Fold Pyridoxal phosphate homeostasis protein.
Amino acid sequence: MTTIANNLQQVLGRMAQACTAAGRDPASVGLLAVSKTFGADAVLEAVAAGQRAFGENYIQEGVDKIAAVRAALPDVALQWHCIGPIQSNKTRPVAEHFDWVHTVDRLKIAERLSAQRPEPLPPLHICIQVNIDGGPTKSGVVPADALELVRAVAKLPRLVVRGLMAIPDHAPEFEAQLAIHMRAKALFDSISALKEPGLAQFDTLSLGMTADLEAAIQAGSTLVRVGTGVFGGRTYPAA
Ligand SMILES: *Cc1c(COP(=O)(O)O)cnc(C)c1O
């Protein structure tokens, strides 16, 4: 078994155990394998081990990797999620090449993604990024403004609003991780509970990474984003 296949099995095992501990159905939590900084070869290895959904942070790197993987595996349906920050002049490649975007935190970005989504493709799936623990310089809409943004995005013709995403600051203790994740879950539930017609597919809470996936699953995450746990430690190119 390759290292990546073995890592995937371990991460899926952690997820299953966390679901059991939380009294949740393991099928209610998906795994997004975050392949940023790793090459198409690593993605192909993960695909061979059964993984189908991948997350990328850097748009050009992601677009190149999507093309390389598609060329190698033209018949395997994969899902590509953009989980990095998007400047408004970089929306077009995202709209043209990705299936999901987790990092929409202002209407202007959503409007551009909708306008630029090519007609033959299905609508782009959107999670609204929420700044759940409040640092003023952090990305994400403040929780009090999340519903308004969700509703506005739901009206855009080429987008479908799927839920919320958050990246809480790292906390070393499980209890502290859980407390912050529970705030994201409460906001998610308050919006789902409205059962508004435009929000029929509002079913995704993108929460939890390698270090805190157990707490995120305990809180109610439906999609954990795991990089290091699947692909190993990252080295970033020097700035
Ligand atoms: C890099 C990244 C991840 C994965 O982080 P790991 O700690 O390596 O699991 C998840 N979400 C986002 C938004 C990221 O940028």
The chain has a mean pLDDT of 96.
